[in-house]
Design brief:
Rossmann fold; binds phosphoric acid mono(formamide)ester; 9 strands; four-stranded parallel sheet; alpha/beta; binds norvaline; about 40% helix
Length: about 325
């Protein structure tokens, strides 16, 4: 328990634990800002601050209880480009790893940094951190969702000429945290999602219902071809997320859902392939698709920087 030393929270803090915390209008504004900032600094050294350095002097604290390459580097570079800086606490070397409570960590960090990002195995920990912090808390991936990834994915789709409302997105493989955030985005932007998973690996029904009740069409199928047919964007992710068992039975069940050239041929001719990375080429995606002309996975990875900047600016009340 937190004890009797809770802070006066003052004006509402903008947390970004899920896409709905910001809502469709704010995310649309984030996508526009991200495109503008990206264009304005084309060709610059990656650590050089944007001309307006809107977060000069601000510090982001990043808590990692799971591995990361893209999220870690993109938030660090995002803060540099916004004129601020970032620091990392990983569970192996911080007191969190020795049992210091989330509540105390939240209250201490709130006095030392201007925003906190957390990547953790348990979404409830991110919620608890946000409850006790008095600075914005950003979800950098939990077992439930990965909202920052999907802002980058939306940015990538828009950059590649896709209008979000009415878009047909196919998801192949495991019904996981990344898919949950895609379904949440579907609810906000009114696109449709065809989810192809083996039986028993469907997404949480809460996210399916969220999208459907907002008017999006969500197809759940155990037939990979049915999911891919006519799609504008084809998306997959690792079959085994961090913290999950490498079960042979799961890998065998996933095999028919590999995104290969035959599956991509069922999608629209100008369909794009997205993957949040890290990829396991030869498992969820074939080498020909991953390295092929429809793959925009490295644009997507770069866009993590531009998306994080927009998320950080929204959290600080500078967008939306
Ligand atoms: N896509 C993504 O979140 O990558 P990392 O796990 O490397 O941060
Ligand atoms: N679903 C994956 C995403 C990694 C960025 C995981 O949670 O491990």
């Amino acid at each position: 328990m937190a004890g009797g030393n809770a802070l006066d929270l003052g004006p509402a803090v903008r947390n970004f634990l899920d896409l709905s915390d910001a809502g469709g209008n704010a995310i649309a504004a984030m996508l526009a800002d991200a495109q503008d900032r990206k264009a304005a600094r084309a060709g610059w050294p990656k650590g050089k601050p944007d001309a307006d350095a809107p977060l000069a002097g601000h510090v982001l604290g990043m808590i990692f209880e799971k591995n990361s390459t893209r999220t870690r580097v993109s938030f660090d570079i995002a803060m540099r480009q916004l004129g601020g800086s970032a620091l990392i606490l990983d569970s192996g070397t911080s007191q969190l790893g020795r049992g210091e409570s989330i509540a105390d960590t939240a209250r201490v960090l709130s006095r030392m940094v201007d925003a906190i990002m957390i990547r953790t195995d348990d979404h409830a920990k991110a919620e608890e951190l946000a409850h006790y912090a008095h600075v914005p808390v950003i979800n950098g991936l939990t077992d439930r969702s990965h909202p920052c990834q999907i802002v980058a994915d939306l940015l990538t789709m828009v950059e590649h000429g896709k209008a979000l409302p009415g878009l047909e997105i196919a998801w192949l493989g495991d019904g996981n945290n990344v898919l949950h955030s895609i379904l949440e985005a579907a609810a906000l932007f009114k696109f449709n999602v065809r989810v192809g998973t083996p039986a028993g690996y469907e997404p949480e029904s809460e996210f399916v219902e969220m999208a459907r009740s907002a008017g999006s069409k969500v197809t759940l199928t155990n037939d990979a071809g049915e999911a891919a047919r006519g799609a504008d964007v084809v998306v997959t992710d690792t079959w085994v997320s961090m913290g999950q068992d490498h079960a042979d039975a799961k890998l065998a069940a996933m095999a028919p859902f590999q995104v290969d050239t035959d599956l991509m041929a069922l999608a629209n001719q100008n369909a794009k392939f997205l993957h949040c990375l890290p990829a396991h080429v030869g498992e969820e995606v074939s080498e020909a698709v991953f390295e092929g002309p429809q793959s925009v996975v490295f644009d997507e990875a770069e866009n993590r920087i531009h998306a994080q900047k927009a998320i950080l600016l929204w959290c600080h009340g500078l967008i939306g």
